[in-house]
Amino acid sequence: MNTESIPKPIPKPTPTRASKRTATRATKPSAPAPAQTDLAAPEAAPMRFLDTYLAALLARASSLISDEFHATLARKKIPVLQWRVLACLSDGSLPMGDLGRVILAKQPTVSKLIDRMEAAGLVARQEDPASRRRTLVALTPHGSTLAAELVVLALEHEASVLLPFAPETAKIFVDVLRQLIAQHSK
């Protein structure tokens, strides 16, 4: 019998570290998937730390709500920091230093942003009559018009966010947030 015509078995590949891990994973019983935490149903699974930690809750809520409005700004091609400046100055002029604190940006960023907004005709720098060392920033008529349009959109968005809540609850919520800000701004 001619043994050359009989096909030889294909040798099994030498397992690598990765294939050993994969094979091991495949033979181990899989652990149950972690329970999804539903904030609306606190009796379900135990709450994770970050589901009850105030700073994390505030950050998540801010991020989610802001992202919704930022999509509106993006459609209008308005950068977020520019919106913040327009919103801040819609109630009147502010010193450059105060503007940075309110829009949550560092001074060099604010200076460059104001340069661009000034070049676009949205804001103007003014000397502070109370102190020659301070510079005020104010909206131009064009900036005021744009700010007014955006404030209307922001208020509509805010109303949609607060719609599921009773008006008294929404007012309490806003009041508590303002108190938190006041307490921690010192």
From TrEMBL:
Start and end residues of each stretch annotated as Disordered: 1-40
Stretch forming the signal peptide: none
GO-annotated biological processes: response to stress
GO terms for MF: DNA binding; DNA-binding transcription factor activity
Gene3D superfamilies per record: Winged helix-like DNA-binding domain superfamily/Winged helix DNA-binding domain
Keywords from the named record: DNA-binding, Transcription, Transcription regulation
The keyword Transcription appears for this protein: yes
Pfam families the record matches: MarR_2
Domain HTH marR-type: 51-182
InterPro entries per the UniProt record, alphabetical: HTH_MarR-typ, MarR/SlyA-like, Tscrpt_reg_MarR-type_CS, WH-like_DNA-bd_sf, WH_DNA-bd_sf
PROSITE patterns listed in its UniProt record: HTH_MARR_1, HTH_MARR_2
Protein name: MarR family transcriptional regulator
Organism in which the protein naturally occurs: Paraburkholderia silviterrae
